[in-house]
From TrEMBL:
Belongs to the glycosyl hydrolase 2 family. GO terms for molecular function: hydrolase activity, hydrolyzing O-glycosyl compounds. GO terms for biological process: carbohydrate metabolic process. This is Mannosylglycoprotein endo-beta-mannosidase.
C-alpha cells in the first residue's frame, strides 16, 4: 500500500505566455514537455501573479521601484491574451492498491484549463474559491506526472478609474471541511467541543470506517498531552458525500449514490477548565490540536485532517453608552486597537515566513485586531494561523468596495459584482476555509459599501448566529438543558461570529453607512484628545502620514526620487509641501494641512537633505500615532469602543499610512503605537494635561506609583514628583493629577517629560513613556543645536545564535549622570510581559534575564535551551561624550558586513524584531533592548546605533 500524505506543489514551475507556446496542453503533458526554462519558458513564481513571474525574469521592470509601474502595459490596453499564461511542473505520485489522489488548487485568478498526463479538466471561474480534482485514474503508474495549467485573467478585467483607488492527497475516503465549535457553561469552567465533518467515499463499495478524533495540547519541552481520544464506527454508501456531526444519538437522512447525505453521529467531547484563547494583551493564546482521521476496513488509514483550535467565545453588540460596536472575548470586553490590512504583497508572492513577520509586527505594536479590507482578498491559511498564535482578532471583509467592484468613479456597474452566484459560491468556500480559526472575530460585507440586496440577504441568512451564541454563558443553564432544543452549532455554515453588512454600519462609524470614517491627514497631536475630533464610538479607518527611513527611499527609487518636498509658503501663513512626482505617485501624505495644521516637520527646522527630512519625519510619526492611540484610549468606554488605523502596512512601496515599509523596516510610528497600546499604560492627556493611567486588563492595579520628571536641554531636572499608593480599576482610564509644569514660571522653551508607572512592592516598571514638548506658540528648533551635544552611553550586549537566527540582548545606559539610589528614576527593573504564545525566536524563554545589581553594567547571561551556542562573551561598547543630557531618539539598525560593499548599496538585514526602538534615555537611566533576526548564509551581522545627537552612527557589534 502506498503512503498516505500531502505534497505542496509550490516549487519547480515553468511559465510561458500562451501566444508563444505552439503546443497544446495534451502535447505539453505527453510528448513535448518543457525540460528547462528556455525561451519561451521561464522560472515561475508560485504562489504569485503572472506579473511576479515577469518581474523575477527581468522581462518587466520592478513595479514597486520609482515610476517603473507606469511602463508596464495594463491588461485593459494589452488585452487578456497578453496576460494568459501556461504554468508547467512535474511531480511524483505513485499509487498502490485502492488509493485515491486529488489535485487541489487553493485559488486561481480567474479561470483555468488543467492538463495532467494528456487529460484535460476545465476549472470554473472565480479567484476566491478552492478547486479539487480527482485524478486517481490519470496519474501514471510509474509515479512521474506532467502537469500544465493554462490560466486566464478575468473575463472583464476593467480599467483603473481616473480617480484611482487603493487598493496531492491519497485516499478512498476523504475528509472535507470539518467545522469545530466550542460551547461554554458555568462561567467558562465547562466546555463542549462540537464537530461536523464531510466524508466522501470515492470507492464503489460501502466503506466501513473508523472515525478517530484526537485533541492534544502542547506542554513544556515540546511534549503533547492527549486530552481526548475517541473512535466512532460509521458506514458510508458507495460514491456518497456525507456530513457527520459529532455529539449522542445517530440518525441518517438518505443514502443516494453521488448525492450529499446527512448523517448525525453524536459524540460529546467534554473539557473541564480548558486553557482559553485570548486576544493579544489579555492573556495567552492557548491552542489545542484537533486531529480527525478516518480508517477504512480492509484498507487502513485513508485521510487525516488537523487544525489548531482555540477555546474561546466571541460576542458582539452595540454598546449602550458609546453607540460603538463592542466585542467581548470569553465574557471580557476588548478595547479594540488595531489597523487595516491590504495584502501581504501586491504581486501575491505569499510566504509563511513573510506572514509570520507581518503578524508578529502587529503583536509587537500591542495591537489586538486586523481588518482584512474589502479591496483585498481572503489571505492564505498561514495568515490566520499566525493571527491565532499572536492573538490578533481578524475582521474579515468580503470583496465589495467602491474602489474596485464597479461602483467607484465613474460608476460602471452599480449592482457589482457581475456574477452574484459566483460571488456567493466563493464567499461560502471562504467561510469553510477560515471558520475554525479562533482569531476570526467577524464577517463584514464590504468596505464603505454593502453588497447588492440579494447577496446581502443571502450572507445575513447563511451567516446568522446559532442561538447559543446569542445567550449568556453566565447563566446556570447546562449543556443538557440547552442543546436538546437546538441544532448542533457545528452544523451551521458558521454561526459563531456576527455578520455586519458594511464597514460603516451597525456600530461602526455613524452606523448608518454615511462616510463618517477618517480623517486621513496630519493632525495636531492634542486634537486626538478633544471631544469634537471624532463623534462616533468605533472608527474603522483613521489615517495619517507614513514616511519610511531614508535607506528605504534609496532602495526603492532612482536618484530623481530622492528629492525632498519643496516647502511653499502660502498667503494664509501655512506651508504647502510639494513632493516630487515619484513620491506623489507612491501616495505620499504631507506633514502639513494648509488652513488647518501647520507643517509638523518644519517645527524641527528646515530639512537639509533626504536623511534629515526622513529623521524629522520619524519624530513626527512617533508623536502622531502615539497621540492618536492615546487620545482614543483616554476615552475608553466613555466615548469609544475601538479604533482601526488606515493602514498598518503597504503591499507595495507606498509612502502613506504604514508602520513598516514593504521591505519590513519599521517607522518610528511603529514604536509610538507600541507604547500607546500597552495593556497597562501611563500617558499625558494633551488636551487637559492630566497624567492618566490606562488599565485594559481584567485585574485591578493596586499599590502602584507614578514618577514624573522634566528634563531641560542642559541635562537638569527642574521638576520631579512621585505619586504613591495609587489604585486603578480594571478596564478603566483614570486621570491621576494635573501636570502643572507648563504653567510654572521657570519653564524652558523645549523640554522632555518622562513618566514611569511602578509597582511599589519591587520597583518593577509597568509602563514608561517619554515625551518632548515646546511651549505654546513655539517650536522645536532649539533641538537643532542639541544634535551637537555629546552625551556618553554604555552598551552591554551578548549574542546568542541558533543556525541563521540571532538574538542580541543589550542594556543601554546614559552614563552622563551618576545614579541616585534615592530616586525611583534609577530603579531600572523593567517587567517583561509573560509569554503569550509567541513561538518566534524573538521571544524565546530565558532562564534568567535580570541585571546583576552588584556589578556595574553587569548582565547575567540569558540561557536559551533552543540556541546552539553563545556567540561570544559579554561585550561592552562605549560612546564617548562629556556633556550631561538626554540621549534623544536612539535607534538601532542591523547591517551585513561586506568587504565588497558598493557605494549606496542597501546593507540592511531585514526584518529585525526590536523590543523597543526610537527611544530616549534621561541622564543615568538604563533600558534593556532585545533584537532578533536571521542572516543569509555566510553573512556577519553588524549592529549600528544612531540618534538625534548620534547622527554619525556608532558600531555596537
Amino acid at each position: 500500500m502506498g503512503e498516505m500524505g500531502k505534497r505542496k506543489l509550490d516549487t519547480g514551475w515553468f511559465a510561458a505566455r500562451s501566444t508563444e507556446v505552439k503546443l497544446t496542453g495534451v502535447e505539453l503533458t505527453t510528448t513535448h514537455p518543457p525540460s528547462s526554462p528556455d525561451q519561451p519558458w521561464m522560472e515561475a513564481v508560485v504562489p504569485g501573479t503572472v506579473l511576479a513571474t515577469l518581474v523575477k525574469n527581468n522581462l518587466v521592470p520592478d513595479p514597486f521601484y520609482g515610476l517603473e509601474n507606469e511602463s508596464i502595459i495594463d491588461i485593459a490596453d494589452s488585452g487578456r491574451e497578453y496576460y494568459t499564461f501556461w504554468f508547467f511542473t512535474t511531480f511524483h505520485c505513485k499509487l498502490s492498491g485502492n488509493q485515491h489522489v486529488d489535485l487541489n488548487f487553493r485559488a486561481i485568478n480567474y479561470s483555468a484549463e488543467v492538463y495532467l498526463n494528456g487529460h484535460k479538466e476545465v476549472l470554473p471561474k472565480g479567484m476566491f474559491r478552492r478547486h479539487s480534482l480527482d485524478v486517481t485514474d490519470i496519474v501514471h503508474p510509474d509515479g512521474e506526472n506532467l502537469l500544465a495549467v493554462l490560466v486566464y485573467p478575468p473575463d472583464h478585467p476593467g480599467r483603473i478609474p481616473p480617480e484611482g483607488g487603493q487598493g496531492g492527497d491519497h485516499e478512498p475516503m476523504k475528509i472535507v471541511d470539518p467545522h469545530l465549535v466550542s460551547s461554554f457553561f458555568d462561567n467558562y469552567k465547562r466546555v463542549y467541543l462540537h464537530a461536523t465533518t464531510g466524508l466522501v467515499n470515492k470507492s464503489a463499495r460501502v466503506a466501513e470506517c473508523s472515525l478517530n478524533v484526537q485533541v492534544t495540547t502542547e506542554v513544556k519541552g515540546g511534549f503533547c498531552l492527549v486530552e481526548h481520544l475517541r473512535t466512532e464506527h460509521v458506514s458510508v454508501p458507495p460514491g456518497a458525500s456525507v456530513q457527520y456531526t459529532l455529539p449522542e444519538h445517530t440518525s441518517c437522512i438518505g443514502s443516494i449514490r453521488n448525492t450529499p447525505v446527512q448523517h448525525y453521529l453524536f459524540l460529546q467531547l467534554f473539557f473541564y477548565k480548558p486553557h482559553l484563547w485570548w486576544p493579544n494583551g489579555m492573556g495567552k493564546q492557548s491552542l489545542y490540536n484537533v486531529e480527525i482521521g478516518v480508517e477504512v476496513k480492509g484498507f487502513g488509514e485513508s485521510d487525516m485532517w488537523n487544525h489548531h483550535f482555540g477555546f474561546r467565545k466571541i460576542e458582539s453588540e452595540i454598546d449602550s453608552v458609546t453607540g460603538g460596536r463592542l466585542f467581548k472575548v470569553n465574557g471580557q470586553p476588548v478595547f479594540i486597537r488595531g489597523g487595516n490590512w491590504i495584502l501581504s504583497d501586491g504581486l501575491l508572492r505569499l510566504s509563511k515566513k513573510r506572514y509570520q513577520t507581518d503578524i508578529k509586527f502587529h503583536s509587537d505594536m500591542n495591537f489586538n485586531m486586523i481588518r482584512c479590507w474589502g479591496g483585498g482578498l481572503a489571505e492564505r491559511p498561514e495568515f490566520y494561523h499566525y493571527c491565532d498564535i499572536y492573538g490578533l482578532l481578524v475582521w474579515q471583509e468580503f470583496w465589495i468596495t467602491g474602489d474596485c467592484d464597479g461602483r467607484g468613479i465613474p460608476i460602471s456597474n452599480p449592482d457589482g459584482p457581475l456574477d452574484h452566484e459566483l460571488f456567493l459560491l466563493c464567499a461560502r468556500d471562504t467561510v469553510k476555509l477560515l471558520r475554525n480559526h479562533p482569531s476570526l472575530a467577524l464577517w463584514v460585507g464590504g468596505n464603505e459599501q454593502v453588497p447588492p440586496e440579494d447577496i446581502n440577504t443571502a450572507l445575513k441568512d447563511e451567516l446568522k448566529l446559532h442561538p447559543y451564541f446569542q445567550i449568556s454563558t453566565q447563566s446556570g443553564n447546562s449543556q443538557e438543558d440547552i442543546f436538546p432544543l437546538l441544532d448542533d452549532p457545528s452544523q451551521y455554515l458558521d454561526g459563531t461570529r456576527i455578520y455586519i453588512q458594511g464597514s460603516m454600519w451597525d456600530g461602526f462609524a455613524d452606523g448608518k453607512g454615511d462616510f463618517s470614517d477618517g480623517p486621513y491627514e496630519i493632525q495636531y497631536p492634542e486634537s486626538f484628545f478633544k471631544d469634537d475630533f471624532y463623534k462616533y464610538g468605533f472608527n474603522p479607518e483613521v489615517g495619517s502620514v507614513g514616511m519610511p527611513v531614508a535607506a528605504t527611499i534609496r532602495a526603492t527609487m532612482p536618484p530623481e526620487g530622492l528629492q525632498i518636498p519643496l516647502f511653499k509658503k502660502l498667503s494664509n501663513g501655512y506651508v504647502e509641501e510639494v513632493p516630487n512626482p515619484m513620491w506623489e505617485y507612491h501616495k505620499y501624505i504631507a506633514y502639513s494641512k494648509p488652513g488647518l495644521v501647520h507643517d509638523q516637520i518644519l517645527l524641527y527646522g528646515t530639512p537639509t537633505d533626504l536623511d534629515d527630512f526622513c529623521l524629522k519625519a520619524q519624530l513626527v510619526n512617533y508623536v502622531q500615532y502615539r497621540a492618536l492611540l492615546e487620545g482614543w484610549t483616554s476615552r475608553m468606554w466613555s466615548k469609544y469602543t475601538g479604533v482601526l488605523i488606515w493602514k498598518n502596512q503597504n503591499p507595495w512601496t507606498g509612502l502613506r499610512g504604514q508602520f513598516y515599509d514593504h521591505l519590513h523596516d519599521q517607522t518610528a510610528g511603529f514604536y509610538g503605537c507600541r507604547s500607546a497600546a500597552e495593556p497597562i499604560h501611563v500617558q499625558l492627556n494633551l488636551a487637559t494635561y492630566f497624567v492618566e493611567v490606562v488599565n485594559t486588563t481584567s485585574d485591578e492595579l493596586s499599590n502602584v506609583a507614578i514618577e514624573v520628571s522634566v528634563w531641560d536641554l542642559e541635562g537638569k531636572c527642574p521638576y520631579y514628583k512621585v505619586f504613591e499608593n495609587l489604585s486603578v480599576p480594571s478596564k478603566r482610564t483614570v486621570p491621576i493629577f494635573e501636570m502643572d509644569y507648563p504653567k510654572s514660571k521657570n519653564q524652558t522653551p523645549v523640554y522632555f517629560l518622562l513618566l514611569k508607572l511602578y509597582n511599589i512592592s519591587d520597583y518593577g516598571i509597568l509602563s514608561r513613556n517619554f515625551y518632548w514638548f515646546y511651549l505654546p506658540g513655539g517650536d522645536y528648533k532649539l533641538l537643532e543645536p542639541y544634535r551637537k551635544k555629546k552625551v556618553p552611553l554604555k552598551i552591554t550586549s551578548q549574542v546568542f545564535i541558533r543556525g541563521s537566527a540571532y538574538e542580541i540582548r543589550m542594556h543601554v545606559r546614559n552614563t552622563s549622570k551618576k545614579p541616585d539610589s534615592e530616586n525611583l528614576l534609577y530603579k531600572n527593573r523593567f517587567i517583561e510581559r509573560d509569554s503569550d504564545g509567541d513561538f518566534d525566536v524573538a521571544s524565546l524563554e530565558a532562564v534568567n534575564s535580570r541585571i546583576e545589581e552588584k556589578k556595574e553594567g553587569g548582565l547575567i547571561r540569558r540561557i536559551f535551551s533552543r540556541f546552539q551556542h553563545e556567540a561570544n562573551a559579554l561585550r561592552v561598547a562605549e560612546v564617548n561624550g562629556t556633556e550631561v543630557g538626554v540621549a534623544f531618539f536612539l535607534h538601532f539598525s542591523v547591517h551585513a558586513s561586506k568587504p565588497d560593499h558598493k557605494e549606496g548599496e542597501d546593507t540592511r538585514i531585514l526584518p529585525v524584531h526590536y523590543s523597543d526602538n526610537y527611544f530616549s534615555l534621561a541622564p543615568g537611566e538604563e533600558m534593556p533592548i532585545n533584537l532578533s533576526f536571521e542572516v543569509p548564509p555566510g553573512v556577519t551581522p553588524r549592529v549600528t546605533l544612531h540618534g538625534w545627537n548620534y547622527h554619525t552612527g556608532h558600531t555596537i557589534l
